[in-house]
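Suppose a colleague, Dr. K., hands you the sequence of a protein chain of 233 amino acids and asks what its three-dimensional shape might be. Before reaching for any lab equipment, you can write down a predicted structure in token form. Begin with the sequence itself:
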Amino acid sequence: MAVPDADRVVVISGGTGALGRALVTRFLAGGDRVVLPWIVKRELESLESGEPEALRAGRIVALEADVTEEAGARRVAEAAAPVEVLVNAVGGYAGGKSLAETDLEVWDRMYRMNLRSAVSLTRAVLPGMLARKKGSIVNIASRAALELPAGLAAYAAAKGAVLAASEILQKEVAASGLRVNTIVPTTIDTPANRAAMPNADFSQWTPPAAIAEVIHWLSSDAAATVRGAVVPV
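The predicted structure, expressed as tokens, is then:
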């Protein structure tokens, strides 16, 4: 399935989730076309009911693909080519136990969702970006990767690896014209987080739309000289 001609094609992993939907809204408002890999059917159905016109017009292309796997990531990259912007927004959270009490399955899940997904999709789109000497990649880490709170070892370690991989990649592509930046959010104000922490002060959380605004700016020409940044939001 090819993406219709457009000024920019933006791939957003996790684009059917709460932060992802805000990203889709912002990039569509900027005139971009968006390619969304998805694996959760109910999230796709929510997107279809919320953005029917954009889907019908081909401004959104939704592809069933597991981007933690090479085949799924490659399928997305091929369908979206040429990709000018990649936002690795898929991720997941698990915590509340000490390192010793955290099952290895949780460590594996945090690695796959937060790091492997970003690395897999980046590897798939990178050859095309390097060939054109143009492209912006924005990764999503977490404040936990900087603050390293007790009880979040698996999650913080995976997000810390995202930070490290982003910095290394920027050094590797520095001469090519590509840009790699990382967003470091505190708790994001999503329905799932509110349900999980009903007694929290939601006013201290960051709205998805605010994060989407920063990511959109980082991927724009206005931020052409911003490379290797770690941006708290």
